[in-house]
Design a protein that fits this description.
The protein has 236 residues and is an alpha/beta fold. It contains nine helices and nine strands. The strands form two sheets. The chain has a six-stranded mixed sheet. A three-stranded parallel sheet has the order 7-8-9, sandwiched between helices. Helix 2 packs parallel to helix 3.
Amino acid sequence: MTRPLAAAESFVDGLPAGGRAGLRVIYAPLMEIRPARAPVALQGVKGVIFTSASGAEAASRETTARLPAYCVGERTAQAAAELGWQAEALGQCAEELTAALLQQRPAAPLLHLRGAHTRGSIARRLTEAGLPCGEQIVYDQVLLPLTAEAQAALAAQTDVIVPLFSPRTARHFANLCGDASHLHLIALSQAVAEPLKGLNCKALRVSKAPDAPAMAAAVLDAAAQLSRLEGKGRAE
């Protein structure tokens, strides 16, 4: 698991116990979330945009205000709601969120509270389409090296399932993993898969939807396939 530790543990906890039986989980975060710890400038703002739970958590530490919050994904919306924001999920990606906001035309200006590294240019696209939106960085995503345990697992040349959730993390993993011929890579989206296509991996699949349930289903399917192959090998 290459996600930040809390997100990785939440993902694994969400897997059905029966489905992950026999799986050895290696936590090897390739990214650490570091809050910016700066006041959030909400003067005159009518609503905020969160594209990750990390954004909601970082912003909530720096302001007591709780405005309407337009979120990418149910998980982000749930995290924001639990922190007191008037949260609403509008799509599973930046494009869907932008389209929904332009259709709804909520009170503006809006403020995208985001990480230092992000995709989609939400604030610019909304503003250019006539819905004023600013942006403020509330956390950084710092890249980390592979842990010793992860390096050992990759060097062992045994089958390893690696779910990857962001293009930046995927690109970082591709630069670190070395020989990928024994790896089963699962990408959240086509954008996440793109940096992985140059690897000579055993399998690369893209999640059917850019969300945790679909990623979990892909992980369990890959695990089941490996289990069947191992069973066939023992039978032969």
